[in-house]
Predict the structure.
Amino acid sequence: MRVVLFGPPGVGKGSQAQFLSEREGFTHISTGILLRREMRNSSELGKNARVYIEAGKLVPGIFVRNLAEDAISKCNFKKFVLDGYPRTIEQAKWLYDFLDQKEAAIDTVLSLVVPDEVIIDRLSKRRVNKVTGENYHLDFKPPPEDLEPGVIIQRKDDKPEAIKHRLEIYQAETSPVQNYYRKQHMLQEVDGTGTFEEVFDRIRTEIGISPA
Ligand code: AMP
C-alpha cells in the first residue's frame, strides 16, 4: 500500500507517519527528515537547502525529487508513506510519472485537518532531539529530562516568523495539491484533532487496517 500524508506544517504528519512505520511496517519517507540529514552531514545539498529551510521557504523541487525517488526505489515501491512530499503541483506530477513507470500508483492521500490555532500551538511548542530527530511537544509529549543540555532544540523554522512564512507558503503553493488529488478522487480527509492515538485510529480505519 502506498500512502501520501498531506496537510499543513504542524498538523501531525510526521508523528502519524512514524506510527505507520513502527506499528504497521510502512517505510516512512519524509523529505524534511532527509533534508535535515543532508544538513547534518554538511553535504553540498544540505548546505544549499539550509538557507531555504531556515527561512521557512520551500527548497527548489529538484532537491527533494531525487531524495524522494531514491527512498521509494529503496523500498521497492512497496508499502511506504510519504510525509511532506509532494508539496507542489509540479512535485505531484513528478511523483505520478515516477510511480506510473512501475505501475505503482498511490492508493490514497490522507489529508489531516486541524484548526489553524492548533497548528500554531503545535509548531511553537515543538522541540526536537537534534541527534535522533525525534519530535516532542512541550505540553503533550515533553522531552525527557535526563538528556545532555543542548540536545533538545527548537527548529529554526519553528520560530514565530518562520512559522508564519511556512503557513503562507502552504496556502499559496501546497494547498492546491489537495485539489489536484481531490479531482482524482484520491483524497480522504481525516480529523487531525485529539490525541496521537485517536488520530492514528482514524487513519487506520481510513486505510482499512483494524485498530489494535
Ligand atoms: P518538514 O519537516 O516536512 O516540515 O520540512 C521542513 C522543510 O524542508 C520545509 O519547510 C521545506 O523548507 C523543506 N522541504 C521538505 N519537503 C519539501 C518539499 N517536498 N518541497 C520543498 N521543500 C521541502
Residues 2-206 form a domain with the Rossmann fold fold (CATH 3.40.50.300). The mean pLDDT is 93.
